[in-house]
Amino acid sequence: MLQLPRWQFFSTVLLFYIFINFVFAFVYLAIGIEKLNGIHAHTTLEKFGEAYFFSAQTFTTVGYGRISPNGFTASAISSLEALLGLLSFALATGLFYGRFSKPKAYLRFSTNAILAPFKDGIAIMLRVAPYKNTTLVDAEAKVTANIMIEENGKSKNTFFPLELEYDKVNALTLSWTLVHPINENSPFYKFSLEDFTNTKGEIIVYLKAFDDMFSNTVVARSSYTLQEMVIGVKFVMMYQRDDKKNKTVLNLEKLNVYTQADISYAFAADKDVVNG
Questions:
Q1: What DSSP string describes 84-136?
Q2: Tell me, what DSSP letter sits at residue 61?
Q3: Which residues are 157's β-sheet partners?
Q4: How far apart are the C-alpha atoms of 238 and 250, rounded to whole Å?
Q5: Is residue 238's pLDDT more than 60?
Q6: CA separation for the pair 216, 6 (Å, rounded)
Q7: Band of the pLDDT at 166, cuts 50, 70, 90?
Q8: CA torsion 35→36→40→46, rounded to 10°?
Q9: What pLDDT band is residue 235 in, cutting at 50, 70 and 90?
Q10: Does residue 228 contact residue 204 with C-beta atoms inside 8 Å?
Q11: Is the model's pTM score more than 0.90?
Q12: Where is 259: in which H helix or E strand?
């Protein structure tokens, strides 16, 4: 209930309210409509309507007074319904509060990770950006690689923490490109282009930051399989100055935009070693 979209949450609450009153309306009809004082109905449909709205008034503890239970059975059922109503509204209130007070990280990750040129080598990169006017400070990212490795004829998942060029930023107001340089400390060191394409693996991203507006720590997660990685591209810059040159504009539609880039030089040395 805390994770449902808003329209599904309110629809669920409304449907539960309608359903529970239908159930008690049938119960009142089953014990006999004459057990309720003040009923002015002749047809079965009218009797059901009177029983339904008496149930709604009892469930919400409104009690307008025209209809009242008569006898032990009707009184016991209406008392039980009033108790269920109080408990249901208490539960709904808790859910409302939980949904409104739950901290949320308004962050978007790029659809794909990329293998891009970086300094004199290559690096795995992915991008994240805030999509609301929230102030996120002390942002910290952790990236882990889950790679399927063959050992003694058996496949097993092995996890490797990936070193980042920067794993912390003081303020996350624009886009942040997380960069894992592929060097001697990387599990992807000596990977060929075919290895990146054929190896079963996943890159898992965990990011947390402090939301200065709501004074809460927020968390965002994402992941990319190696098959979702785009090779030989680089991200396009997402931000630029506005026409008046006094503000910086962040273009969220460019979060997943990249251009071709040559990284063949990074694999040429490996080929030379193999040929040698």
A1: HHHHHHHHHHHHHHHHHHS----EEE-SS-EEEEETTEEEEEEEEEE-SS--E
A2: T
A3: 148
A4: 6
A5: yes
A6: 22
A7: very high
A8: -80
A9: very high
A10: no
A11: no
A12: strand 258-260
CA-based torsion, 251, 218, 171, 116: positive or negative: negative
Task: Say how many C-beta atoms besides its own lie within 10 A of residue 150's C-beta.
Answer: 8
Does residue 25 sit in helix, strand or coil?
A: helix
Question: Residues 216, 143: contact at Cβ < 8 Å?
Answer: no
Q: Is 257 helix (H, G, I), strand (E, B) or coil?
A: coil
- The span from the CA of 122 to the CA of 129, in Å, is 22
C-beta atoms surrounding 220 within 10 Å: 20
Tens digit of pLDDT for each residue in 181-227?
999 999 999 888 888 888 899 999 999 999 887 788 999 999 999 99
Residue 190: Cβ-neighbour burial (10 angstroms; 0-12, 13-18, 19+): exposed
Kindly report each contact of residues 189-194 with a partner whose C-beta sits within 8 Å and lies 24 or more positions away, as own/partner.
190/270, 192/267, 192/270, 193/231, 193/267
DSSP 190: T
User: How far is residue 45's CA from residue 25's CA, in Å, rounded to a whole number?
Assistant: 11
Residue linked to tokens 């309210």: 17
Handedness of CA 191, 196, 199, 205 (dihedral sign): positive
